[in-house]
Write a structure and sequence with these properties.
The protein is mainly α. The protein has helices spanning 3-6, 15-28, 31-55, 59-65, 77-84, 87-118, 122-132, 143-152, 160-183, 187-195, 200-211, 213-228, 232-237, 246-249, 261-290. It has 15 helices and no strands. The two termini are 50 Å apart.
Length: 296
């Protein structure tokens, strides 16, 4: 006879006690939080539904039925109009601005955060505080100096003119995230690398970069979103059609006497899809990084 055969069976609870436990668990449910979550879900889904429903309607049907009505017809004409209206060129320009901004921010912020965390010199701490002042300065407040700098450097109406100020305004928060991430790296690892004879650049490449992967991903996503959705710098420092980005390309659907709302919604949907998928796969890194844990 096995041991399992001789083990006593677990006592069964009466049905009334089981029902009482179920009722107690039911009453423990946080109904206010659940109600608030449902309401917030509606707040998020209603605009998304409005954009999606409007983008597959004809213009006349949209004007007759309104933005929240169920579409009685389905058409892809709006998406064809968007793709034939220069969407590919705007997408390419936006991708160049986004990649350039992310690369520039990471090239500056990662070594700067490493110096802030590891250097004992007081000048480094003062520089970090000066960078933090950028969090309190909105882009609208310095748009005239930025315009003057761009024109005097002969960069007006180029994609570089968008990349430079976009990266500059993304640097303060990027430094905060990366400095918090690097402070979580144990000091013993830095000391062991120093005992092995590793220099600062080798430590940065072999230790800091792998250990701060979460923070780097957060900074890259934040900077990319900042560059992808930027309006004010492309509006001020560019002019020609060939340098236009997605946010300015939406103006093509605004005429003298009205706006092609279904076409505009189709363009908005196509513009938002890349970052919608990116957020679905990277939301854990974003929340963890902004919480100061660096995604670990």
């Amino acid at each position: 006879m096995s041991v399992t055969d001789t083990a006593p069976a677990a006592p069964r609870l009466p049905a009334t006690r089981v029902r009482r436990r179920g009722l107690r668990r039911l009453w423990r449910v946080n109904w206010p939080a659940g109600t608030g979550a449902v309401l917030w879900l509606l707040v998020v889904l209603i605009p998304f539904y409005s954009v999606l429903a409007s983008s597959v309607q004809e213009r006349n049907n949209y004007l007759d039925r309104g933005p929240l009505a169920l579409p009685d017809s389905f058409t892809l004409e709006n998406f064809r109009l968007v793709l034939e209206g220069g969407f590919a060129r705007y997408l390419f320009n936006t991708a160049v601005v986004t990649v350039g901004s992310v690369g520039l921010v990471l090239a500056v912020a990662l070594p700067a955060a490493y110096a802030i965390v590891r250097s004992p010199h007081p000048f480094v701490g003062l520089t970090f505080r000066l960078f933090l002042l950028g969090l309190a300065i909105p882009a609208q407040a310095v748009i005239i100096p930025v315009y003057l700098l761009i024109t005097r450097m002969h960069l007006y109406d180029t994609l570089i003119a968008i990349i430079l100020p976009t990266a500059a305004f993304a640097l303060p928060l990027s430094l905060v995230v990366l400095a918090g991430t690097l402070r979580d790296v144990p000091k013993e690892l830095y000391e062991s690398m120093a005992l092995d004879g590793a220099g600062p650049w080798r430590v940065l490449r072999s230790l800091v970069l792998p250990m701060s992967r979460g923070g780097v991903i957060v900074v890259a996503i934040y900077t990319a979103q900042h560059a992808w959705n930027g309006v004010i710098f492309p509006l001020v420092v560019t002019q020609s059609e060939s340098q236009r980005v997605l946010t300015l390309g939406l103006w093509n659907f605004q005429g003298q006497f009205g706006i092609n709302v279904p076409g505009l919604m189709a363009a908005v949907l196509l513009s938002a899809l890349p970052f919608l998928f990116l957020y679905l796969f990277a939301r854990r890194w974003i929340v963890a990084g902004l919480a100061g844990t660096g995604g670990k």
